[in-house]
Amino acid sequence: VKAPFLVFVPLPMGQTLNLPDATGSKREFTPIPAYHVVPTSGYRLSSEHGSLLFSGDTGSHSALWEQVAATPDLRHLLVECSYACAQSDIASASRHFYTAELAADLTGLTLDAEIWITHLKPGAEDEIMVELHALLTLEMAKSVHRLIEGQTLEI
Fold first, then answer.
1. Residue 1 pLDDT exceeds 80
2. pLDDT (tens digit per residue) in 9-52
3. CA separation for the pair 147, 61 (Å, rounded)
4. Is the model's pLDDT at 7 over the cut of 90?
5. Which residues touch 87 (CB under 8 Å, ≥6 apart)?
6. Are strands 41-47 and 74-80 parallel, antiparallel or unpaired?
7. How confident is the prediction for the chain on average, in pLDDT?
8. Can you say whether the dihedral through the CA atoms of 29, 30, 31, 34 is positive or negative?
């Protein structure tokens, strides 16, 4: 095919892809490191109105929080939390966040962003969210929400 309709090309870690929208406004996509048993990445999506950071499948690692700190216009942080504390051994082995680990990482952060929890294990969603909120300060817990299927976030 001389002119394919769609071409997939790798986007190296940390390299930003600029795709202006129809009006020419800024839209940037940057892969960020994740810490998982299978090679994967998260993403930072940026526009003129702010940024969204998606952790991807990951456990705790400093590179994620360095990305958060390096994104001053962060409006939405989507971070996975797959397990409650009772399954911390599974979470650690598979390199997924569990509630106490994520709460410890969030503690002390100063964010003016909403935090959306993704990748909750089916059937344990309420348990994970209740446990996570109980481990956070009241002020931090106000910004932490469960991401619901079909929900739209704007940046």
1. no
2. 899 999 999 998 889 899 999 999 999 999 999 999 999 999 99
3. 22
4. no
5. 98, 121
6. unpaired
7. 94
8. negative
pTM: 0.91
50 backbone φψ class: left, alpha, beta (φ>0; ψ -120 to 50): left
Could you tell me the two tokens for 84? 């409650």
Whose structure tokens read 């994520």? Answer: 102
